[in-house]
Specification:
Elements: H1 44-67, E1 73-75, H2 77-88, H3 93-103, H4 110-124, E2 132-142, H5 149-159, E3 162-166, H6 172-184, E4 200-213, E5 219-227, E6 233-251, E7 254-261, E8 266-273, H7 279-283, H8 288-297, E9 299-308, E10 310-317, H9 319-324, E11 347-360, E12 364-377, E13 387-390, E14 395-401, E15 407-413
Parallel strand pairs: 2-3, 9-13
Antiparallel strand pairs: 1-15, 2-4, 4-12, 5-6, 6-7, 6-9, 7-8, 8-14, 10-11, 11-12, 14-15
């Protein structure tokens, strides 16, 4: 299987160009090594930021689901929050306040936020040697566009951002950036940019990639039927696992199970609304408070499980979604205050684009996402009876880190 769960977030603050043709290369995953799982120790303020990240994840997903016409969604809220937090280091005034408010970071300083992401990144990328999580950041500066040194320095120090100067007027720049993203996401997102607007001055990119093998593999998939959101039927490859123990909960119109990867530092949660409850209706119940309650109340239970394999690519412009969450000044050529990035005015965001991909089979899950923001200038149980958990109709999925319960990916499958 092509194991790439490609949570790659590309925040394009602006565009750039490359000066020479880019040689196509193929990145290789590191070898998997069994490691001991450990929990991330967080201070009260750090735990607050982690909790806020999950609240943002549900808020963003709910906002997207309300207006999306496609049946299948794949998002990486964590990727988007990386990008927004990096950008916050260049914002001031109302622009900064709106970004922090949307992310739930009002009571935290930029120093608090940056230090959290530095610590969290190190943990995510090292906690499980059998599950590969890759996070990379870069800043692409157009020649002649002057950026304040503090902005690049803080992103280099806390986010390990690579800084590169390019000529945005040359068409090869798009290829160079796309190749960088493709390498960091192991080919999951080969073409993030279809083009670069001539008014773009800088691109800030975050990539997040996930590749995890199930802790216990499923049986060989079999041909079965899946009922789509519109009532139609599809033939699918359905994974099977009989009389196995998973964390399980039935509550509030939904049943859920948690399936572990690697050393159990990461897991996928499948949420299956009861018959008659549509995905759109259930999405309104998605809150971080309920998520915490469900995770706390789930218990190890003997189950018979059926789970469809799937392969989803998704793309969405997030401008209206983040504006609905309160980030408005950032998109205004008049009101945007990015004065901690550059003295050049006006400087504002013209587009936030996210591309995501997820593939699930009997071996595990690969996922990636890319979020791009363009910045423009000038304008234990006794012998139980197994419970059936057959995912043969629309459902939600979440990939999370288990020490902090932080959400990496969230989405739904309404049609196969």
């Amino acid at each position: 299987m092509k194991k790439l769960f490609y949570l790659s977030a590309l925040f394009l603050l602006a565009a750039c160009s490359a000066e020479a043709p880019v040689e196509n290369t193929t990145a290789k995953l590191p070898e998997r090594v069994r490691t001991h799982r450990y929990d991330l120790e967080l201070s009260t303020r750090e735990q607050g930021i982690a909790n806020a990240n999950n609240a943002f994840a549900f808020n963003l997903f709910r906002q997207v689901k309300q207006t999306e016409t496609k049946s299948n969604i794949a998002l990486s809220p964590l990727s988007a929050s990386y990008v927004l937090s990096m950008t916050a280091n260049g914002a001031a005034g109302t622009t900064l306040n709106e970004i922090k408010s949307a992310l739930g970071f009002n009571e935290y300083s930029l120093d608090d936020i940056n230090a959290f992401y530095q610590k969290f990144t190190d943990y995510l990328t090292t906690v499980d040697g059998e599950t590969f999580v890759g996070i990379a950041n870069s800043i692409w500066l157009n020649k002649g566009f002057k950026v304040l040194p503090d902005f690049t320095q803080v992103n280099q120090e806390y986010y390990l951002g690579e800084v590169q100067e390019v000529d945005m007027s040359k068409g090869a720049t798009k290829n160079r950036i796309n190749q960088w993203v493709s390498d960091k996401t192991f080919g999951c997102i080969p073409d993030l940019l279809s083009g670069i607007d001539p008014e773009t001055r800088m691109i800030l990119i975050n990539t997040l990639y996930f590749d995890g093998l199930w802790r216990k593999q499923f049986d060989t998939p079999q041909d079965e039927t899946f009922t789509n959101e519109d009532g139609s039927k599809s033939d699918v490859k359905m994974l099977h696992a009989y009389e196995r123990s998973y964390r399980y909960l039935a509550t509030d119109g939904v049943r859920l199970i948690e399936i572990s990867y690697g050393n159990s530092a990461y897991s996928m949660v499948i949420l299956l609304p009861e018959n008659g409850i549509e995905l759109n209706t259930f999405s309104n119940r998605f809150t971080s408070k309920k998520w915490n309650t469900w995770m706390a109340e789930s218990k190890s239970t003997c189950l018979n499980v059926k789970l469809p394999t799937f392969d989803i690519d998704y793309e969405r412009t997030l401008n209206q979604d983040v504006q609905a969450l309160g980030i408005n000044h950032l998109f205004s050529g008049v009101d945007a205050d990015l004065s901690h990035i550059s003295d050049s005015k006006p400087l504002f965001a013209s587009r936030i684009l996210q591309k995501a991909s997820i593939q699930l089979d009997q071996y595990g899950t690969t996922a990636a996402a890319a979020t791009a923001m363009m910045l423009e200038g000038a304008a234990n149980i006794e012998t139980p009876v197994p419970i059936d958990f057959f995912v043969d109709r629309p459902f939600y999925y979440i990939i999370k880190e288990n020490s902090t319960q932080s959400i990496l990916f969230i989405g739904c499958v309404g049609e196969l």
